[in-house]
């Protein structure tokens, strides 16, 4: 199967669902990891142009841990707007390029504007990608893919409808996250958070709920036209 995971910034996917992606990749599925924004403003001292290059390299290194494809849509942090047709077309073309059976992205009530905008744009794009008169560089998709929302940061306002046991993939997840060294520093300085410990703790919490050591939680978007019988092939 083809899996498309879309986060707002480099490191968002690693924080919320990298264990599941590692498990999917190990099972032989093809994964495209996309960050919509460049991550160009997430630092106190490194200017945006320099930080863009750093974060691109970090994202590629993280994806290389599990051998997945990593792409970026190139939006500036804080500059992505859901109600914009040009932005929608970029996401439509992404969906057509990846040809996903399953798409994973931010929940609609996540904590910051870029995450919420990406959630809305992915929802729009996964449907409109099937309409041939929206012209992009890739042909129209054959069907609307299944859509899953990954956990909100710290799990606030998020009630998983199912869990993936990622106990055997925690160290891989943390290895992927550790590639984002600029953000480990930024989150410590800006938010007072040790994000590695943060991720491990939330994984244990979801594991307690799921009846295993470490888990990741998801909500399936259940609406008509979605192939709702599809479940994570893990």
Automatic annotation (TrEMBL):
It is an enzyme of class 3 (hydrolase). InterPro entries: GlcNAc_PI_deacetylase-related, LmbE-like_dom_sf. It comes from Paenibacillus hodogayensis. It comes from the Bacteria. This is PIG-L deacetylase family protein. Keywords: Hydrolase. One of its GO terms (molecular function) is hydrolase activity. Its EC number is 3.5.1.-.
């Amino acid at each position: 199967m083809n899996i498309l995971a879309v986060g707002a910034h480099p490191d968002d996917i690693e924080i919320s669902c990298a264990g599941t992606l590692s498990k999917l990749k190990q099972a032989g599925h093809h994964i495209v990891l996309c960050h919509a924004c460049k991550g160009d403003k997430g630092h106190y001292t490194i200017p945006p142009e320099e930080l863009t290059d750093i974060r691109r390299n970090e994202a590629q290194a993280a994806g290389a841990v599990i051998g997945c494809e990593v792409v970026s849509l190139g939006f500036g942090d804080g500059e992505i707007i859901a109600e914009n047709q040009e932005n929608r077309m970029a996401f439509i073309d992404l969906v057509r390029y990846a040809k996903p059976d399953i798409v994973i992205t931010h929940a609609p009530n996540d904590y910051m504007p870029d995450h919420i905008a990406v959630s809305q744009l992915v929802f729009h794009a996964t449907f409109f990608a099937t309409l041939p008169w929206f012209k992009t560089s890739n042909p129209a998709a054959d069907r609307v893919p299944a859509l899953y929302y990954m956990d909100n940061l710290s799990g606030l306002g998020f009630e998983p409808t199912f869990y993936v046991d990622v106990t055997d993939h925690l160290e891989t997840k943390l290895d992927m996250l550790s590639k984002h060294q600029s953000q480990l520093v930024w989150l410590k300085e800006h938010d007072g958070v040790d994000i590695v410990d943060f991720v491990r703790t939330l994984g244990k919490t979801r594991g307690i709920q799921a009846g295993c050591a470490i888990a990741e939680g998801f909500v399936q978007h259940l609406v008509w036209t979605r192939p709702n019988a599809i479940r994570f092939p893990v």
